[in-house]
């Protein structure tokens, strides 16, 4: 272990610059009231000695850490297996770097660790949090509320629909989120399949404890209100889940002629099963995904027709909204009440060979 | 943005429990000297009110954050593209979770952001740092030394070999690292190729500003001290780099009959080029990789003979050494002097079809 060299102290800087401790402290903490030649002398001494202020003490004064936490409510293994998160992080990282704010990704093994995440958020280590992939029964929103850090959610939080944690109703301002138009995108996908003359259109859902999956299912139902219930198969946004769901679908509804899958990873599992069974895409069964995850959506066989959402832009926008809010803390940015408010980005149908 | 509900204060807890502020503070900070029935009353009030102590203030007292930073000296995009890092993080995450310590991954866009990483490390937000993928000219080691946080490095730091930052020589204890036996593994790979009767054995290196790449090249040279210099091609640990290097190799040395690639990603690029050129593996050219990265090494065509290192175990061991060192701070754990000391894990040759 690399033990510390003795770190240069505030006193050492003061001695080097020939000023008082209080003067150094004021300069280091960005305070005013120090004449420029003196301030310059302090800054030079700081540079020469490699002095780093104790941020724990400093942040008690400045209340700013120049760091933003990102919390993905999934186990670390999923965060690295699903390219969706890498794309969102790329957008966030670019935006935070442009503001010289440190991206602090809090990884966990699973939901049992969320209390610890809440403690870190409450601990005065970050200026705010970006939180995504929330699940309905996750204690994280309550923990975040208690932690009292400004937060922007990725995806509409589901707890507005009757399941809100009691704490969010009283006192707190409304949560702010960035989302894609999941319901509208799903409708466009199903309308496209109807336009191709398909009659037995199935939907393989995402994890229904997430609003993105619920909204895509609602969009499907908007267009197919009388769908045979066996044509709706619950799944979990993964390729393996897509394979399982497609096998079940072929067993129960051998006459299915189109599948709208809740995301591209699910669709990739669907395509694998159809190839296995010797079924042609799109001739026998048309397939549409969701996300337009590249390069995956272009490299499947056949290339995937899908609903595009700009995942990287979602991340960038979340970071921008959080930083903007921090700059106007105490202003009129936060709407009252517990009803979530958010920005919903448009989605567009991208046509390739699979439908 | 979710603005804070008013957070319950220390005073509110004291009022609820019917004790003094000082008593609450002592219980919350794990101090002794509070009788059990009283302490229990405080803990109940803390639970009921959802009180979270201000960690910035608290950590000034306890000096412990229950959080460990992980710094990967690569841009965020590479961290997510190279499965090596996901494996190391998996080992680290498991170990930290078992100790209820929060994994704080500090992501950057690139080397320009390392000064900010240094500030976060110095800022009193974490108990220690795990640092990997260091490059020789990276300012990070100096910044980490200045930050004064206990650190374990993944991979032998290269700056012991004459290029050590001046700060590390004086005063600081030796850096501690965990590494794999890169040189021994490279030797075993080349000896295997020699044993197969190969005579024109090439090496495609990794990024030579990293000790892992240097050590593998040294292992190659141990076995092939008189190798034709055109048989050694510098590359960068990526599939695209492997492709470029293999094309160069075939152009300059068309009689090459074996390739030892610095890692499996490089080898996957090599195999792609050989297939393109209609060369058979292993009949025309035998190929060996390094890492035994799964599932990649089993899914290449043909499956890859490679040198196995236990990447996840490296991560786990780094975390264990750091946490162990924290528990005995001030003890005799830290060796003196500036010479790095470390644990080197064995590597083993895994034979599949490519050699």
TrEMBL record, chains A, B:
It comes from Streptomyces mangrovisoli. InterPro entries: HTH_LacI, LacI/GalR-like_sensor, Lambda_DNA-bd_dom_sf, Peripla_BP_I. Residues 8-62 form the HTH lacI-type domain. Gene3D superfamilies: 3.40.50.2300, lambda repressor-like DNA-binding domains (1.10.260.40). It comes from the Bacteria. This is LacI family transcriptional regulator. Keywords: DNA-binding, Transcription, Transcription regulation. GO terms for molecular function: DNA-binding transcription factor activity; transcription cis-regulatory region binding.
